[in-house]
Write a structure and sequence with these properties.
The protein is mainly α and 134 residues long. The protein has 2 helices and no strands. Helix 1 packs antiparallel against helix 2. It starts with a helix and ends in an 11-residue tail after the last helix.
């Protein structure tokens, strides 16, 4: 029938397959969680990009429109005030976008370090399924 050595080899193969299956399932779960998280944040990301683009386009349009109107009526008294006020609005919009992007990057870096640590911990499992000690 089966020798003791063959039984140990079969048991070892089963443990190896179980560990590999566990790793594969963990990777699939992590990808699903990451995809779910990224899908929920897409609308915020897209909205903020659109907001900055709209603010920039409105700033450029209003600047040229006001220049044309001021040139047509030969009245440049409000040019300085307009440039100052419109620039402040654009600065606030762009600054807010940079702050939001910076915060997102901090969380992305932290989550990538966490994922790397989990992957490293998974790599420290011996092929026979037992934990290694360092």
């Amino acid at each position: 029938m089966w020798t003791e050595k063959e039984v140990r080899q079969l048991e070892r193969k089963d443990r190896i397959e179980a560990v590999l299956h566990h790793r594969k399932m963990r990777k699939i779960e992590l990808k699903a969680q990451k995809k779910k998280h990224s899908n929920s944040m897409v609308w915020v990301w897209e909205f903020s990009k659109k907001l900055v683009l709209i603010c920039s386009a409105l700033y450029i349009f209003s600047f040229f429109y006001s220049c044309v109107v001021m040139w047509k009526f030969f009245d440049f008294t409000y040019l300085g005030t307009f440039i100052e006020q419109a620039s402040d609005i654009l600065k606030t919009c762009v600054f807010g976008y940079f702050v939001k992007a910076g915060v997102e990057n901090v969380f992305k870096i932290a989550s990538s370090k966490l994922n790397k640590t989990e992957q490293d911990a998974g790599a420290m499992v011996a092929p026979d399924g037992e934990e290694r000690e360092e």
